[in-house]
Amino acid sequence: MNQRILVVEDDASLGRQIVGHLEGAGYAPTWLTDGDAAMRESPKPYALVVLDLMLPGAYGLDVLKQIRSSGSSIPVVVLSARNETRDKVRALQLGADDFVTKPFWPEELLARIKARLRRPVLEQGGSIEAGDLSIDLAARAVTVRGESVDLTKVEFDLLAALARRPGAAIERAWLVDHVLDPEREGTERTLDVHMSRLRKKLGASAKQVATVWGVGYRLETRTAS
Amino acid sequence: MTLRGRLALTVLVVAMPMLAGIAWLRGDLARRAADRSLREFAVARMESGGRERCESDPAFFHVIAPPPRPGAAGDAPPPPVPPEGPAPVVPPVPADGGASFDEPRDPPPVPITRMWAYACDFKSRNPRAPEIPAALVAELQRGADEAGAEHSRNGLRGRQLAVRMPWPDGPCAFVLVRRIDAATPDLAAFPVWAAAAFVAVVLGVVVIATGPVVRRIRKLTADVRRSAKQHYASEVEASGGDEIAELAAAFNDAAREVRGQLDAVAKREEVLRAFVANTTHDVMTPLTVLQGHLCAMRQRFAGKPADTELVNAAIDEAHYLGSLVHNLGAAAKLDAGRQQVQLSAVSLDELVQRVIERHWPVASPRAIEIEFAVPETPVWIDADLTLLEQAVGNVVGNAVRYNRPGGHVAVILADAPPTEFSLRVVDDGPGVPDEQLARLTERAFRTDDARRRHPEGSGLGLDIVRRVAEFHRMQLAFRRSEHGGLEVEFRGVRGIPPA
Prior knowledge:
The structure holds 2 protein chains of 2 kinds. By secondary structure, chain A is an alpha/beta fold. Chain A is built from 9 helices and 12 strands. In chain A, the strands form 3 sheets. A 5-stranded parallel sheet of chain A has the order 2-1-3-4-5, with helices on both faces. In chain A, strands 6-7-8-9 form a 4-stranded antiparallel sheet, covered by helices on one side. A 3-stranded antiparallel sheet of chain A has the order 10-12-11. The radius of gyration of chain A is 21 Å and the shape is elongated. Chain B is an alpha+beta fold. Chain B is about 50% helix and about 15% strand. In chain B, the strands form 3 sheets. In chain B, strands 1-2-5-4-3 form a 5-stranded antiparallel sheet. A 5-stranded mixed sheet of chain B has the order 7-9-10-12-11. In chain B, strands 6-8 form a two-stranded antiparallel sheet. In chain B, helix 5 packs antiparallel against helix 7 (about 385-400) and helix 6 runs parallel beside helix 7. Chain B is rod-shaped and about 165 Å long. The interface between A and B is large, with 43 and 52 residues.
């Protein structure tokens, strides 16, 4: 399923580039070049809006206001060229979900978009997907390629702790303090032992639990890498 | 000294000599009147037979007379001769006899005038006559026609006058006239209570009269202070037509002038700021496009090492250029001061992720890993979104830029209980020599190594880091990381998440 993304960008070269990158990443972009057209466009069929703030016709913030006043909660990523705090704060207040300051890298924009599209799944609190790995937090169930994996309580708690902050590394010290039982096994050494066992059980998905230099561990969700 | 105190003092300083002058003048006039009366008495008596009597019997010459009655012009008819006294004139009062005959001990019920005659040597032939006081003699010797002085006897005050007669010689060339007058006021003394009352009344008038003036001046002062506090936005009240109103009007004129200048400066700054913002916009969109092209080229050249290296170098420069323009904007904003900075609730978690994602495309081609950690509960702080992101971005950018291929950078956001947060940027790059670590927090300093490798850099990035940390009251620390590279820590107070 190709998610549709509405791109509102007046600069022809940049608009063409963004559309190209979105298509390359498997999205189905629709590109509008002026604010008035964006005001008339319904956000309903789209999964996300990429909105430049400086547009001919209606100002980007007016488009944002229009989207939010129509009752839509579609994720909106704002492109800010002037790098003015005033613009960004106003956009966030009006209901923008994120902003990207120009000049940005295509990968940077894609990462922001992916993060925003991923969020609703997380907020539903159900299961988290990382590659072939699927973690159901509510049912405390883990599957790899559909096969159920039997984990101990500590192993599941460690995996769940990583899964609750996908993409971010978790400090070893934090895991020791908050997940391990401090009475019995509260050292970084035992943490590494548990992690090693967890990886072994995950088999093909072991690489999804990454050791992070300088920090600790992370659940790998960046499927591109 | 207050205005009122000054006025009161001035009044005292002016009034005291004035009162003294009036007292002296009053006494002088009284003395002159008394002397004139005594002289007229003497001349009239001597010319109407006195001289003859004196010259015929100088040893007994002595005149005692009641005061001149009104209309008599001091020239009383010859009094009756006392029956037993040696003097030809008998006082109208009962004599108390003998020794003090010429100077009665008891106060006479009515003023009495007495007169004795003296020769040219100022000696009287009458042995009972008093001596002319030396001061009066001296004055007459200097050629004066008359010489007067105070005279008192038995606690009663009066006047005495030595008069030169129109004839030059004989035993009666001079006479001394004395008058004790109970009705004569104390000629020299001034009624002190009256003076005190006068001064008190004048002071009271000063205080009452200056009351409204002082009140208005105080109000004007308060108004001026308030206006100054509001950058002269409000005018002070300038009612009335006096000097205070004029002063208020003058202040309003000056305030208008200042306000005009301030407005002009603000307008210039606003124009400049808009210019910078618009220029930034005009630069950033093409720069984004350029970066897009560079990424496309990198994909196309993948596998051809020489070309890839070239494209990566171009990517580095484009990245640096974008960051430089933003640093210039941040510097302008910091220079402009507080009104250009906008604080709001900022999610540090999201800020860290944005910074990571911005630098990842530059780090990944050089096999530099950028990692980040955020705490369980998101950290919100009150900050200027753009400035803080620029500052953190500069630190991460440096950690990537000065790292070796295959190196690591970790951005670790953590709670620092009870109320603080800690944001650490750790790398395993070449680090900074110990002796230069301390100097990193100083302004406009860059290590020599950085200058050599990136001579185009101006140290602006690190300067922004320091100034932004200072502005947000964050502690900024540079230390050697446990992995051999540099560790930069921002430490500050957590804020409240937006509702």
